[in-house]
Amino acid sequence: MVMNSASNTIAPAPSPAAPGPVLGVPPAEPAAAAAYFRASLVFHADVSDVAAALAAGGDPGFVVVDSRSGPAWDQGHVPGAIHLPNALIPEQAERLLDPAVPVVTYCWGPGCNGATRAALALAERGYRVKEMLGGFEYWAREGFAYETWEGGARRDPDPLTAPADGDCGC
Questions:
Q1: For residue 90, which phi and psi values (nearest 5 degrees)?
Q2: Residue 112: which residues within 8 A CB-CB, separation 6 or more?
Q3: Tell me, what's the pLDDT at 12?
Q4: Based on CB atoms within 10 Å of each CB, which residue in 31, 60, 76, 84 is the most buried?
Q5: Looking at residue 130, what is its pLDDT?
Q6: pTM for the full predicted model
Q7: CA 132: distance to chain centroid?
Q8: Alpha-helix residue ranges (DSSP H) falling in 79-154
Q9: 67 contact partners, CB below 8 Å, separation of at least 6
Q10: 105 with 132: CB under 8 angstroms?
Q11: Distance CA 131, CA 49 (A)
Q12: Cα 66 from chain centroid?
């Protein structure tokens, strides 16, 4: 049976179709799915949630680390982020980061695993860490303010990544 939300009635479940690429491997049982998705949230934060926490004022309870090169940092970075390129983590993390404060890493965007490498390097050094999904690309595409070597900047939100009214409801 399937609940029809439009009329609040229960309809018969659709007849099973031949398994295709989506259901050829069936979905996990609900408990296993809940454990997986909870674990995902342990390791990841999204751009909008990071931006909201930083914009709320006061101490967000974490520090943001940009793991990109100097020229990439100069091109644009999250306001208040600490610049700690991956190659410098072994020698500078202890000087720049408090091990008691969780870290949120980011790199260019979803096509780059630099934030993942930074998160791994920091975790191996005893830091609690999350990776910011979407990286700097989605920070800028969602219309959040950023800093460049020339000063502050902001783009109009990309309607494919951020709703026009600013609230995706998720």
A1: -60, -35
A2: 135
A3: 60
A4: 84
A5: 98
A6: 0.82
A7: 3
A8: 89-96, 114-124, 135-141
A9: 84, 85, 86, 89, 105, 106, 107, 114, 115, 117, 118
A10: yes
A11: 12
A12: 13
Amino acid at 127: Y
Residue type, 104: V
- pLDDT of 162 reads 75
Average pLDDT per consecutive 10 residues, the chain (170 residues; last block may be shorter): 58 66 92 96 95 93 97 96 97 97 96 96 98 96 93 85 69
Q: Say how far apart CA 103 and CA 123 lie, in whole Å.
A: 9
CA 68 to mean position of chain CA atoms: 16
User: Which pair of structure tokens corresponds to residue 86?
Assistant: 């991956």
Structure tokens belonging to residue 158: 């990309």
Which amino acid is present at 77? H
Total count of residues recorded for the chain: 170
b (16+ CB within 10 A) / e for 82-95? bbbbbeebeeebee
- Which residue in this structure is represented by tokens 């920091």? 122
By the 8 A CB rule, do 130 and 44 touch? yes
Q: What contacts 101, CB < 8 A, 6 or more positions away?
A: 61, 62, 63
Round to whole Å and give the CA distance between 70 and 131: 20
For residue 118, what are its two tokens? 């930074």
